[in-house]
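Section: Multi-chain targets

For targets with more than one molecule, the full set of components is provided together so that the structure can be written out for the assembly as a whole rather than chain by chain. Components appear in the order listed by the source. The example entry contains two components.
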Amino acid sequence: MDIYRFFNSKDVADYLREIGYEFTAPEAAYIVDHCDSATLDEKIELWQQIIDTMPDCPTKWNPCTERRDSTHEFLREYISLQRRMLEMFEQSEGCVYFVRKARYGEWPESYEVRNRRGNWIERGPIPFSSLAKCVEHLRSAREDDGDGFDRYVIDKMEIDPTGGKYGRGSGALSLDGDFRPLDVDICELDENDSDIAYELFHSFVELPVPFMRGDIVIDRTDLEPHPFVFDHLKFWDSTEFVAHGGKPLPPEQAEKLDRLVARMDAKHGWDISHMVACGYELGSHYDGGPLNDPCDICFDVFGAGNNYLDLERYNGPLEGELKILEAASRFMKGEIGIDVFLDGTYLTSLASQARRLERSYDSEYVPEVRHLYQGGEL
Amino acid sequence: MIDIYRFINSKDVADYLRATGHQFTAGQAAYLVHKSADATLAERIDAWRAIVADMPEERVFVEYREYTYGSRELIEEHIADKEAKLQKFLNSDGAAYFPYESRWSEKPSWVPEKWCAENGLWNTLRMPVPFSTFDGCKDYLRREGRILGNGWRLDTLEEMPGRLEQRAPKSGVHYDRHVVCRVVMDEGWYQSYGHINDPEPQYTPLDYVVLDGNLEILDVAWGWNDMTFDYMVSAIPIPFQRGDIVIDRTSRVPHPFVFGFAIPWARDRDGSVRVDNEKLEELFHEQFNDLHREIEASNIEAFYDWRMTAYGYEIDVETGMVEVRPFGASDNYLNLEYYDGPLDGELRQLAIISELIKSEIDLGLAANSNRAASIDNHLKAMLQ
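Its structure, encoded as tokens over all components, is:
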């Protein structure tokens, strides 16, 4: 069973393969569930393999769920529920379907959108009376336009909703570029099904990762992928913190942190909110953020990345505002001093401001004004 | 006799026209009723009928039809067209209705400034809530209105998907506009237009009604807007001078700007608007023609209403820079009012531009003040 192919991050998968990490059944089940590219059929096949080949064990996915005596039994129920949810999503009576959004595999060069942050585009409320008709429309649009989408999210909603948030039977289905189901969600399940449906999604899994403090990383599965400077993970104790390049904490602080981590371990207190990766990112993904300043570097206590297992080392260009990340990275790794760090970020900020001015005047429609900025004679 | 002033969106324009005793032609009156942002469709139809009955006939050459009509014929055609569109909109066979977007009467405290800078007070759907009838859709909006009127409550908000996530209770905030669209089932598309360079491409359906806060129909649109009335209006005088700081409160994102000139006056000046920089005007015209060609070539039909455009200097919310937008600062110069709100933050630059245009300060003081204001704005933003 090749569990590594289900990792969203090649770097994390390679590292775990290299150190020969032995997965437990709950860890493997989580990795499969969290996989961004596997189809639902592939996931079901892998969960079945986990049941058939990996030792069973009890599990507690997160602090809000009951301890389960058997991971295998949970997975059997989970597989059954996934199949039922897919059937429920296809039942079209009294409902309409919309393509809520779609993702370009590669953003079309001719399609200019100011401040674009990701490859997703929202779609308008175009209703279909069945899932089959909706998919057929997507298929014919692909044949007509060659649109290049590699993901779709289809919503199903009750028409004339009478109760509940989105109406009974409402839900969402993700499809890949070949229109194969990746993930299905039904809004109104009974209590037991609802618990099973979200247990894996909200769970916490602790696995070793190769990242060191100061590494520039990116989560490519994010809706708006953006590089940031990795700092630490929320569940690390002081030893892990130092092992990953952190400066040793003062003894009192280290002791406090270790006590907190031990207490959380003991009561299974970790949940999905502790899967985030903390680090320094450019304000609101360098579109300017609340400061309207793309050079605003900030530490988000809610995490710069949603899931540390999705991180990869960023090897794209570090140009423009991204030079600030490079300066922060090198400063955190002790490669440059505080003077070079501060001067570097300041100079990058000035250059960025000048570029924005330049862009503003490049698009100036009055030729004389454009000419004035470009330094020629009037 | 019809009170035409009540249909003028700008109090300042209405007061000016009343003070100067402007005599409206039937075409001008019909156009002002057509553009009224607050009158219901029923009130407007009554007003058009009154114009037909009371005002003298005039001849109108409609360029795109290449034909000259009588104003009465055009107005009656327009009334019949609106009524037919409404009937088509209300026919629910094979269609679904969605509350597409709504407008807050004032900015709720929990809505970020940045949202308003991009969307105004419009709250556009995130998840469409479908209805099989228009009445069902209105019931939903009515229920939502009751909840908003009593203050926001978490339990009742659970019933309302599709809105900007609410952050905190705020009593007294209500919607004063709704857009409800009608889309045919299983066709796989709707006619729409997108805003050029929209950061998140939004496509507004073309078959829709606009409702006021009491769910009365203000307007109905079906397919592309008919631009006939735009040919019926000849330049209507306005009180604004170059350098005045004005605002179009009917625009989607109302923002003050320094008035430069309006298209009708750039073409057909009679002295009411003092456009004393002829070179600037020529430049705009040259550029304007380029733009028009570009738009025709790209087959974008978003420029039909350009005849009424007002140009001026405004602040780009993204960069904080002063800019003159090629599509103008306001779609319609008749909607402008003097801006009497605070001129702080980035808006200080508008005061500087205004004073420079009016020769109240020299260019040195203007340049230095502008630099100081920019630095101060940035500093304040960082310290927040």
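The CA atoms of residues 130 and 274 of chain A lie 39 Å apart.
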